[in-house]
Amino acid sequence: MLLKIVELIGVVAFAASGSLVAVSKRLDIFGVCLIGVFTAIGGGVLRDVLLGITPPTSLNTWRFFTTAVLTSLVVFFLHAAVRRLRREILVLDAVGMGLFASSGAAIALDAGASGQAACLIGATTAIGGGVLRDVLVNEIPLLLQRDLYAIPALIGSTAVVACSGLGLNTDIALVVGTISASAIRLVALWRHWSLPGPRLVDD
Amino acid sequence: MLLKIVELIGVVAFAASGSLVAVSKRLDIFGVCLIGVFTAIGGGVLRDVLLGITPPTSLNTWRFFTTAVLTSLVVFFLHAAVRRLRREILVLDAVGMGLFASSGAAIALDAGASGQAACLIGATTAIGGGVLRDVLVNEIPLLLQRDLYAIPALIGSTAVVACSGLGLNTDIALVVGTISASAIRLVALWRHWSLPGPRLVDD
Amino acid sequence: MLLKIVELIGVVAFAASGSLVAVSKRLDIFGVCLIGVFTAIGGGVLRDVLLGITPPTSLNTWRFFTTAVLTSLVVFFLHAAVRRLRREILVLDAVGMGLFASSGAAIALDAGASGQAACLIGATTAIGGGVLRDVLVNEIPLLLQRDLYAIPALIGSTAVVACSGLGLNTDIALVVGTISASAIRLVALWRHWSLPGPRLVDD
C-alpha cells in the first residue's frame, strides 16, 4: 500500500519534470502530455521490454498513465505556479528515482536476470524516462553532463541485489534500496556534488 | 486484400515522408534509404517489441521492407518531382496513419493487451516511425510541436478498442478506426487546426 | 575461443570510440562510461530485444559490460594518448563491426528469424551502438551522413545468411561474414570511399 503511494508520487514528480521541460520548449498541449507521460513511464516500459514482460505493465494498467496525463495537464495550465515548487518536485523526484531503481532491480531478479543485469536494469528503470525526455526535446541528456543522478540509481539497485543475495525479504530490500538511493541523491543536490569532467589539456 | 493494399500505400507514404526529410538533410543514398525504412516500419517494429512479437513482423516479411527501400530510392533520385506531390503524399500518409493506428490496436488486443494498452500501442504504431525519423535527423519531433497527428491516431485506435468492446468483428472495427482517424487528420490539415501552446506570461 | 577474443576486441574498440566522443563533448566521468557502454553493447541489446532474448545477453553476462567500463575509464583518464591511436582503433572497430554483424545474423537465424530479418538484425547489431551514441550526444548519426559503415555490415550479415542457406556450418559462416565485412570497411576507409548524396538542383 505504502509502496503504491510512493510509486504514484514518483510518477507525479517524473511527469511534472517532463512536462515542465516541454512547456519551456513551447510544445502544444499534446506534446506536453506526451513528454510528461514518456518521462514518467518510459523507464518502466524499457525495463519491461528488456525483461520480456509484454505488454509492459505501465501501459497495461491505468494508474500510471492516468496519473501522468493529469499531472501534465496541471503543469500545462498552471506551469508558472508549478515552477515555484521546483525544489519540492526535486525532492519527490529523488524519492521516485530511488523507488524505481529498487523496484526495477527486484522485478529483474524475479524475471530471472543475473545480479549484474538486475543492477543495470534497475538503474535503467530510474533514468530511462529522463533520457527519453531529453532525446525527444533534442538535448544532450542532463544526467550525462553534470547531474549526479545515475550513480545514486545504480547504488539503489545494487543495494537491492545485495539484500536479495543476503536472503533478506523483498520489502526490506526495497526500503534499503529506496532510502539509500534517495538519500544520496538529496545530499548530492544539497551539497552541489558533481562528477569530474575530462581534463582537456589542449584548451 | 484491400487491407494489404492500403497497408502498402501507407508504407509508401511513410517512406516517402522519411526519405524527403533525409534528402533535405543531405544524407547519402544509404542514409536516405535508412531513414525511409525507419519511418515506414519503425512504428510496427516498436509495436511488436512492446507486444513481445519477435522477430518483429515488419523485419520478418519482405513486403514492407522492400517497398520502403524502393520508395526511398525513387525519392533519392527524383526528389524534386516527388516534392511536387507533397499534397498527395500528405493524403496517403493520413490514410496510412489511420490504418496503422487501427491495425496496431487490433493486433495488441489479439496479443492480450488491456484496452488502454491497445489504444496506446495502436497510436505508437502510427506515430513511432515519424518520431524515430525526427530523433535520427536531430529535430524535435514535429508531432510534439504543432502537427495534429497523434490525436487522430489515438482516436483511431480507441475506436477499434471500442468496437471490439461492443463485440463487432475485427474488419468492421478496422474500417471504423481507419476512417475516423484519417478523416480527422485530413480535416485538421485542411482547416489548419492546431493545438494550443502553453501561455508564457513571462515573454 | 578465438571468437571470444575477437568479440572482446570489438567491445574495446566500440567503447573507445564512444567514450572518445563523450570526452570531446566534455561529459563527466559517468557520462563518458555510459556512452562507452552504450556504444559497445547497445547493438547487442537491440538485437536481443528484437529477437525476444530477455534479459539481453550483454546485460546478463559480466564480460562485455566490465570490458566496456574499463575501456571507458582508460579513455577518460588518458584520452590524449588514446586519441593518438585513432587509426589503430578504426582498424579494430572494423573487425568488431564485422564480427558483430555476422554473429548477430547467426543468432537471429538461430532464434527463428527469416533470412531477411537475419540480415537486418545482424546489421543492426553492428551499427546500433554507434547510432545510440550519436543520438545521445545529439548528433545526426555519422553513418547516415557519409561513413561507409552500414553497407559493409549488411554485406557481412548477408554473407552469413547465404552461407547458412548453402548448408555451411556456423563457424565457417562467421569467418566469411566477418572477413568480408571488415575487409570492405577497411578498404573504404583507406580509399576514402563514400556514397553519393542527393543532387540538389535548387542550391
Task: Describe the protein's architecture and organization.
The structure is a homotrimer of 203-residue chains. The first copy, chain A, is mostly helical and 203 residues long. The first copy, chain A, contains eight helices and no strands. The radius of gyration of chain A is 17 Å and the shape is globular. The interface between A and C is medium-sized, with 33 and 30 residues. Chains A, B, C: Keywords: Cell membrane, Membrane, Transmembrane, Transmembrane helix. Chains A, B, C: Its main location: membrane. Chains A, B, C: This is Trimeric intracellular cation channel family protein. Chains A, B, C: It is found in: Cell membrane.
What's the layout of helices and strands?
The structure is a homotrimer of 203-residue chains.
Chain A: H1 2-24, H2 29-51, H3 57-60, H4 62-83, H5 86-110, H6 115-136, H7 150-165, H8 170-190
Helix count of chain A, per DSSP? Answer: 8
Helix/strand class of chain A: mainly alpha
> Which range does the strand content of chain A fall in?
under 5%
- The coarse overall form of chain A would be globular
Quaternary status: homotrimer
Mean pLDDT of chain A: 89
* Main sheet properties of chain A: none
Helix content of chain A: over 70%
Whole-number total of structural domains of chain A = 1
- What order do the SSEs of chain A take from the amino end to the carboxyl end, as H and E? HHHHHHHH
Biggest interface, which chains? A-B, 30 and 33 residues
Distance between the termini of chain A: 54 Å
Count of β-strands of chain A: 0
Poorly predicted regions of chain A:
none
> What is the alpha-carbon Rg of chain A in Å?
17 Å
